Amino acid sequence: MKYYSVVKNLVVLGFLFLALPQAKAQSDFFFYNPEDFYINRDIINIIDGGGMTVEPFGGGAPLGSGLLIMSLAGAGYVALKRRRLFKKGTALMLATLMLLGLTQCKKHVDAIENTIPNGVAITLRTNNGDRHGVNPDNGDVYFTDNDRLLISDGTRCIGRMKRTDGVFQGVVEPLEDGAEMYFYYLSNQTDDYPYVPTGIAVSLSDQTDRLPVMLFGQTTYYQGVTQYSCRFHNKCALVKFSLQSPTDETVEVGFFYTDFSVPFDSQGTLNPGNQGYIKLYSTSDTEKWAVVLPQYRIDAANAIIGGKNYAVSLPDITENAYITEGIVIRNSHNTFKIADDHEVYFSPGNLQYNGGTQQWRFAEHQYDTPNDYDPTTWVDMFPWGGWCEGMNPLDLSPGPDHGCYGGFVGTLNGHDDWTAMSSSEWHYLLFERPNAGDKAGQCYVGGFPGIIILPEIWELPDGCWFQPGLELLHEANNYTYDDWAKMEGAGAVFLPNAGFSTGVDGKQYYSSQGGYWTTSPAYEITATYLFIKNHVAILKGDLPRWTGLAVRLVRTAPYN
Description:
Helix 2 packs antiparallel against helix 3. Helix content is 15%, strand content 32%. The chain has five helices and 39 strands. 38% of the residues are buried. The protein is α+β, with helices and mostly antiparallel strands. The protein is elongated, with a radius of gyration of 36 Å. Strands 11-1-2-7-6-5-8-10-12 form a nine-stranded antiparallel sheet, with no helix packed on it. The longest helix is centred in the first third of the chain and has 26 residues, at 88-113.
């Protein structure tokens, strides 16, 4: 009787096991309808750029409930037969159990055999870690329905997937066991990607609708495995652009990589193409965002708002960066007249050059100027004419090489719209433009002396003051860094007394005097420069061209 009890319990358990999947429309928890597919196999783990699970239909199904029920029934029949405890009632239960078990097994066979010819159907479930648009509050990205994924075998496109009801589904060509599958999500496209077997081209130029994302991940295909795990990596950076003055106008910022190609034979590699302007995505009238490709620092970037140009300086941008502060588009009234019909923007700081890396940049702040002259690091002292092609911009040795004309054009990565001003343009700015006497004065910024110049349209910020007069002492306008941030935000420009350099004795007269080269020659071996110190701001022409002086560049603005 002991064996009979064991078998009876097995049979009862078999019926109970069978009853549960019948409550799910004869499902066995392995094959569901598409809405419920793999409801219990959600092992997504989104960490630092994302994760995903790839689940092939019909690939290596485990011992499902139908096979298990038949195994139980068969084992019971053999055990009872050997012990001669087989009875009519038990036989009926076992027969019914085996019949239902066959029904379950038949559903497994149908699901496995009904794959698309010459392909393998797969599902990618992203759960709550969706990865398409971008949430500017925290940098998270997420998918939306109708998004597409492309799948490559490392040489060409072998499949596509479309997201419907929170799940990606698609078909890939048959793969060998152990082959790699590479997954691409590209840009903010929701339509089918144009079919290009070896790669695809994408543009990031228009992001006004929503922020795009570019993701790459890979996993190894194993025949007979039902689940895969893979990690997505975000190939772009999310950058916030704060506006000094609110606007509902479209904001465009350049000069970025906006077009790129993705070759399938170079896994996860993005090849930048054209550079241009990105139309930014707005979360408010003062905060604009963009997703951009990795690139070096851009000091000569500019923003276009309502047909007007504004200067902006950008840091180095790397993959998956999330930059939320430090980039401000100063779209206030910040243009300066240098002729009756010519207005300009000033660069955000004095020109600097690194002799060690041979790179140009603008100083991070308008008041920044090194207190020594070290040509192996960042310096801001240059000979007149030292910008000529093929010349060493730090060559301060006497000689005939300092006789060419120019305005430091082309120093900043090909952005030749920045230039130095001529002697007559400096004179017009300081002494001839309308109300010129009210728009310049001596000052201190953070304890460092120089002169302040106001734009054409000026509104004094709350809590600030300004006393005009280039003949005054610096103490007339003494600003803390916080005070200066307000003045600069309203469009004011500061020219620090950076001193002079001969290249031998380091800087001379640092913080007590300053000089800024113009593009105008004076005499045979001299050139004109703006000389500034306490009580004084005048144009002179008595320095040899190989003297190191500061350079402040400008860029033409639309005339208003």
